[in-house]
Write a structure and sequence with these properties.
With 233 residues, the protein is mostly helical. The chain has helices spanning 3-13, 16-24, 36-46, 50-57, 62-71, 79-88, 92-105, 109-117, 122-138, 146-159, 165-181, 186-196, 213-222. It is built from 13 helices and no strands. It starts with a helix and ends in an 11-residue tail after the last helix.
């Protein structure tokens, strides 16, 4: 499919109902309201296409930006490409999903996660933690810097409740991922989870809830969770 064909597809498959759902989740820019299931139909046809993914992302249209992440070629993406994508993400759903997924699959995941986590921009910082979460979920534990992850847990337990809204959400997820995917950090993550308690995040006009750390880790342990093959979904 060409760029024009994809945009035509998005316009045809958009709906006001899905637009409303996306708006309730925080999308403020242009959006057609296309279901993710329909975006994945395009993904199956296009597979991975570096130039097309960049062109779609640059439209600033939410559906096109999300699709750009589904078809991005993580091996072709440069650090500059990913930094540009993160800077252009005006909605945390793009920074913590689309951009974070591809960053984690790229050769620059850890470097970018560290840089973005330190950002004063809430959306970028949240994207940084989300990138690290995807690294934990997809990389073998031998490839991970367990000592660094341990230190990040120490930081989170001290500051999570004073952090910015979406950063709090991703920090909560970081503790869950560390405890659920890295056995040697499980008890520490659960201990910190008890200390952290309930994390309050404004989820907009949605029914979404922030998962409780300890019960979530215990569910992961009970079902014998395995690493993911890829970050994007």
């Amino acid at each position: 499919m060409t760029f024009d064909e994809i945009i035509h597809f998005l316009k045809e498959h958009g709906s006001e109902q899905i637009q409303k759902i996306y708006r309730n989740h925080g999308v403020t820019g242009p959006v057609y309201g296309v279901k993710v299931a329909d975006l994945k139909k395009v993904q199956k046809k296009v597979k991975k296409n570096y130039e097309l993914s960049k062109k779609l992302y640059d439209t600033g249209i939410y559906d096109a930006m999300y699709l750009a992440g589904l078809i991005a070629d993580e091996k072709a993406m440069t650090k500059e490409d990913l930094d540009k994508w993160m800077e252009k993400a005006d909605f945390q759903g793009i920074s913590t999903n689309t951009v974070a997924w591809i960053a984690a699959e790229s050769d620059y995941g850890l470097t970018l996660a560290r840089e973005w986590m330190a950002s004063e921009n809430e959306i970028i910082a949240a994207g940084g933690y989300a990138t690290y979460i995807s690294l934990i979920a997809t990389k073998s534990n031998e490839e991970l810097d367990i000592e660094e992850i341990d230190k990040i847990l120490d930081k989170i337990v001290e500051c999570i409740h004073e952090e910015r809204n979406y950063v709090r959400y991703e920090m909560n997820g970081f503790v869950i991922s560390a405890g659920g995917y890295i056995p040697e950090l499980a008890e520490k993550a659960k201990t910190y989870g008890e200390k952290i308690g309930k994390v309050h995040v404004d989820m907009g006009n949605t029914a979404c809830k922030v998962p409780r750390i300890v019960p979530y880790i215990e569910k992961m342990e009970a079902r014998g969770v395995k690493k993911k093959k890829q970050a994007r979904c």
